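Input sequence (269 aa), recorded before submission:
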Amino acid sequence: MLHVSFQAERDVEELLKSFQDEKRAVANEMGSNGTYWGKWKQYLKPHVYRPFIIIHFFNLIQILCGTSTFVIYVPGIVLSWKTDGSLDITLGNNLIIIVRFVFIVASCVILLWVGRRMICVSSGVGSGITAILIGILVYMQTIHTWIIFGFVLLYVSFHTYGFLFMPTIMIGEILPSNIRCVAGAYIFTINNIVKLLAIKYFRSVVTAVGTHGLFWIFGVCSLLCSLFLYLMLPETKGCSLVQIEEYFLQPKVLWHTRKKCQNIRNTNI
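Predicted structure, token format:
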């Protein structure tokens, strides 16, 4: 307990020191330029724009992975499979709600022991493969409805424990403190606009590509998102906010080519 308290106190001291150094650097640049260009110049630093790009892409691609649109249009999608009368639409919706609740609770526990990278990548790979299998089963049109819906519940499970809420968590963990509020507000605003457009044209897309094509899109986008996160997303579990900022200051881009944040100290931000 004393060790945890000491570590928290040291992290706060490092964060305050980093903030003060950043504030002095901005003030010096503003003074030397005589304009506010120095203030805007801070947004072009690697530890600012790199995590911003990662988290912005992670949030946007969620829409194409089906995290939002699938929940809204579940009744219509399930109804389109109800060819043998074996699946009640209300029962299907209730099962999806129960599965989401269970895996949301489970994810809160998983975060205590499992790293963020593992959660994100496994969530994307699992939901991507499952979505592609659902598309194949729907395309065959000879599979029992309950079998398809079982894969749907599996797809919802994979999505829920990782992709559903990890983008929001990562905003608080990898964005630097000096832009977190502004960048977070911008990301949520853009996401809501794009999500509104996706919902508006969702039925048109389903009509054009079919239900099977829709899940193939979900699957491919989930796998691409997993690949991107595997290459770019740092592991933040056990790292202080200062260590995460220091990690992004390294010249190399890919995760496996950089020193991990636990081994980086005393970098001048």
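Checked by second reader. The longest helix spans residues 2-33.
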